Amino acid sequence: MKQRGSGGDRPPSRRPRAGEGAGRRTELGTEPGAASPKISKAAANDKALDSIIAADKIAALKLAPVSRETEERLDRYIALLRAWQAKTNLVAPSTLPQLWTRHIADSLQLVDLAPAAKRWADLGSGGGFPGVVLACAMAGKPGASVHLVERIAKKAAFLREAIRVTTSPGVVHLAEIGDNVDRITGPVDCVTARALAPLHQLIGFAEPLLRQGAKALFLKGQDVEAELTEAAKYWNIRPQLHQSRTGDGWIVELNAAERRS
Question: Domains, the chain, ranges and CATH?
Fold first, then answer.
């Protein structure tokens, strides 16, 4: 039923198995008579997280190299995300130390799977993965645009601010996913989603765009085989699987989908 992609230049992997804040910075005070500054717990945690994220960034950009301009946009995006994370849960707190590898590089790898795509639609953008990352990567390309569809108002507000501070070509749509896809104006080269819904539901959301010639790239976890089996009950599809460069996940590529009668 499916074909496996190369997943970059990584060797083929085993068959997947089922299953799948920055704290507020404080001033560093010096106690009377102390030889060196005493660092509060909050400041120490921030300082440690800064160091960890910096090292993670180096690893991520080896997996998914970008131009200096794109890197600077991504730096501004990460700084904004960490500032907002304290009041709005944009990513799982446990993933903050791996913001670059787990979220940024994971999103950037989609560009290599659709190198000619300039017009993207990201369904359920959440904290901006992959939508804002793709918009940062598309900045400067004539005719580039990324539609970010998000149903939660606080997250949509964050996405708008992220697009603004990164000066990236993105348009945020505050709407239910299924209600908004038909309203996206202009052609779309590629539609994507990450951690949004089971595959058979994603195909239903994306089908109007696929019908118009878009390619779908859906980021999925280790349970991709079970999701493909379930999706085949509802859709005639010929998926291609690409192993993620950043973990045990998979990317499902679809060029067409026809609902079973």
Answer: 3-20+37-259 (3.40.50.150)
